[in-house]
């Protein structure tokens, strides 16, 4: 199967495909994401702004996977929905779907996307062109990963969708994803602890089943509502970007592009996908 990876980021879909399909084009306009993608995946990658793409620029593919900007559907982004300029790329993508009609289409976004005007516009296009559609919420914690990251997923096909198999939960300990020697610079300063106190979502490694909350692109910049902290050996620290991508399910060989500073690595990781959740969604694509 040939695949176009829209809003490719650092390659969450490519990690989930694990070589079982051919990515013929990965599209993202962000330079840091583009450089890290190229450092990890051999597929053709383009720094294109989806809002200005024409259908003839997009290689032929059976599956289009899209993870459009989520800010228009979040509280932090003021839930401006289609009025948010960052939704322009999704609006353009809907027109491309109607024009090209890929055999399969899938989308991932934050839970707030469901019921939005963007969601309704997407469904109107898919329903009008005869797609079979399945929608669901899925969190990697349901699969046994120590990461609470619920997301809305939509899978559509011009063919009847394959039955979704029951979820298989394989518990994975948080300790397995941690750096062996964490950087001392990750320790949270005492003044920040004193200022925010109990507002900081701290995960204790000694908890019987420690879980971390959803990391966002603001992790390391916004003290709250951006992801968990870790209490380890009596100290509280940030998770490293490398720990975050491991908890997202990226392979151990994954690397950020050389020269990417920690803040940008946190942003790239927080804006990416849960690899095991994506792999689960892909099982619904009809084969043959």
Describe this structure in words.
The protein is globular and about 55 Å long. Helices cover 25% and strands 18% of the residues. It starts with a strand and ends in a 6-residue tail after the last helix. Strands 3-2-1-4-5-8-6 form a 7-stranded mixed beta sheet, with helices on both faces. It has a 3-stranded mixed beta sheet with strand order 9-11-12, with no helix packed on it. It is of the alpha/beta class and 288 residues long. The protein is built from 8 helices and 12 strands. It has helices spanning 12-17, 31-40, 88-100, 117-128, 190-196, 241-247, 262-270, 275-282; strands at 2-6, 22-27, 45-46, 63-66, 104-109, 132-138, 147-148, 151-157, 202-204, 212-213, 229-232, 235-238. It folds into 2 domains: 2-161 and 275-282, 3-Layer(aba) Sandwich (Rossmann fold), CATH 3.40.50.150; 174-268, Alpha-Beta Complex (DNA Methylase, Chain A, domain 2). Helix 3 runs parallel beside helix 4 (117-128) and helix 6 (241-247) packs parallel to helix 7 (262-270).
Shape: globular
Spatial order of strands in the largest sheet: 3-2-1-4-5-8-6
Outline the low-pLDDT stretches.
none
**Secondary-structure element order, N to C:** EHEHEEHEHEEEHEEEEHHH
């Amino acid at each position: 199967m040939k695949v176009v990876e829209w809003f490719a980021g650092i390659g969450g879909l490519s990690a989930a495909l694990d070589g079982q399909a051919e990515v013929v084009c990965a599209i993202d306009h962000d330079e840091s994401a583009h450089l890290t993608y190229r450092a990890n995946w051999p597929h053709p990658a383009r720094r294109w702004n989806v809002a200005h793409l024409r259908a003839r620029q997009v290689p032929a593919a059976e599956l289009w996977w899209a993870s459009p900007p989520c800010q228009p559907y979040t509280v932090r982004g003021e839930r401006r929905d289609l009025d948010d300029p960052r939704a322009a790329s999704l609006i353009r993508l809907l027109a491309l779907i109607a024009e090209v009609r890929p055999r399969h289409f899938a989308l991932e976004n934050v839970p707030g996307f469901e019921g939005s005007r963007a969601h309704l516009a997407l469904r109107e296009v898919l329903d009008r062109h005869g797609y079979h559609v399945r929608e669901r919420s899925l969190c990697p914690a349901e699969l046994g990963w120590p990461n609470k990251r619920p997301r809305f997923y939509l899978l559509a096909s011009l063919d009847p969708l394959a039955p979704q198999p029951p979820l298989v939960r394989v518990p994975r300990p948080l300790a397995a994803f941690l750096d062996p020697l964490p950087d001392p610079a990750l320790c949270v300063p005492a003044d920040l602890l004193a200022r925010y106190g109990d507002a900081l979502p701290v995960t204790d490694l000694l908890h019987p089943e420690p879980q971390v909350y959803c990391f966002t692109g603001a992790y390391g910049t916004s003290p709250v509502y951006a992801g968990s902290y870790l209490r380890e050996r009596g100290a509280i620290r940030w998770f490293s970007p490398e720990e975050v991508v491991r908890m997202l399910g990226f392979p151990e060989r994954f690397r950020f592009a050389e020269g990417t500073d920690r803040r940008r690595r946190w942003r790239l990781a927080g804006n990416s996908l849960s690899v095991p959740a994506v792999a689960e969604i892909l099982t619904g694509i009809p084969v043959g």
